[in-house]
Amino acid sequence: MTTETEVKNEELSVNVKADAGCVMTLDTKLSPAAAKSLHQKALKTINKEVSIPGFRKGRAPEAVILRNFGTHVDREWRDLIIRKAFEEACALAKVFPFGRESLRKPTLHSCTLEEGAHATFVFEAEPKVPEIQAADLKIEKVEPKPVTEEAIDKTVKDIRVFHADWDTVEGRPVQEGDYVDLTIESLDEPGHTLCKDRRFELAAGHSGAWMIKLLVGKNVGDTVEGQSELDAEQGTEIKNFKPTHCKITIHKISAIKLPEINDELAAKVGVESADQLRDRIREDLNKAAQNEAESKMLEQLDDQLLAAYPFDTPASLFEAERQSRIRAEISSLKKEGKSEDEIKAMESEIEAKAAKDSDAAIRLHFLVRSLTGKYQIQLSQEEVYQELAQQLFGNPNGSYISREMPPEEMHAQIAGKLMREKATATLLAEVLGS
């Protein structure tokens, strides 16, 4: 949608045309008086820069300067006109370029002392981000799931399994309760391996009933086919479940030797004694439950922000993000074994999703950026360094940064993430409290 307005002051009138994609056209007209004033300024500038025999710098008569350096004066004058017209037009219209690259080459249509100057500027502007009001947003509070003794027992077992010793079982078929190493391939998508040589515990709560039933009684080296199913208690927990026809190959059966729950095991997970192990696990699970509840509320917040505050974003930024997402999706599909023809058939779906996700990501970026200003969010060096250490050493496989990044990019990524988290957490607290 195109809109046009006009703004002006004593020296400059501006026709402001706003097009989709934050493209702004400022058609400016500078008064003769302003043009003459800038011409005098250009003349003085050149007078100070050139040397003329018989005159000190800056003291030569104007007629002499114009006769000998008229083209230089004219060039300087035009530059001054372009600069003044652009800066004042942006200030009057209250629109500013999104970035240096967004400004196209200006057009100076005319420039005379008698009639003034006429220039046009086209650029992508910073988006006009609406002011976020907590009262506009409605978030359903999510309470953390209570930590049960069963959950603590499971975590204790997971710790023991992680530090366990293993024996290979030979000479018998698979039994329920065994640990088996499996490769699972999709028959719905030939060539796509769901997992390779991965260990599963064939017990309720760890593997699906369909898999246990399929594998019990089979031997190492056997390959079986079946279809994944949800267990009855999973019916409401997994959204958009789609059964998968798969081929499962059994590589090995293993028996586990679990370590005792003692001070030695506790020390391996950073706890002083076995007596403190369950307390530490309870504390960690409570923290994880709190984080999960907050994450669900932040998802609601994102959806609410996008619904409540539609606004236009820079076209070049949107297109760059869209193309990046398309490339990433195609790369992912190729890794899954999709053929060129299959990907081609999904082209419209891929592009539609990329466009929707790009718009959401960019609008959220600008909305959150406005929040950091509204709440005056600040970071300390200590916060940045703590996050850096966590990402590099505490979460090396799932980190959003890498050691190959230049230091300034690494710092920018970390600071951006922390600022976003602080800003959205502050807004969430305000929404829940309002």
Write the layout of secondary structure elements.
Elements: E1 3-8, E2 12-19, E3 23-30, H1 32-49, H2 62-93, E4 107-112, E5 116-124, H3 149-162, E6 165-169, E7 179-186, E8 193-201, H4 209-215, E9 223-227, E10 245-257, H5 263-268, H6 274-308, H7 315-335, H8 340-345, H9 347-374, H10 381-394, H11 407-433
Antiparallel strand pairs: 1-2, 2-3, 3-5, 4-5, 6-10, 7-8, 7-10, 9-10
When the domains are counted, the total is: 3
Give the integer mean of the pLDDT values.
Answer: 91
**Radius of gyration, CA atoms, in whole angstroms:** 33 Å
Report the count of strand segments: 10
With strands numbered from the N-terminus, the spatial order across the biggest sheet is 1-2-3-5-4
CATH superfamily of the largest domain: Trigger factor, C-terminal domain
Question: Which geometry do the CA atoms define?
Answer: elongated
- Poorly predicted regions are none
Oligomer: single chain
Figure out the total of helices.
11
The helix content is: 40-55%
CATH class of the largest domain: Mainly Alpha
Order of helices and strands: EEEHHEEHEEEHEEHHHHHHH
CATH topology of the largest domain, which one? Trigger factor, domain 2
In the CATH classification, which architecture of the largest domain applies?
Answer: Orthogonal Bundle
Structural class: alpha+beta
First and last CA, distance:
35 Å
Strand content: 15-25%
The largest β sheet comes out as: 5 strands, antiparallel
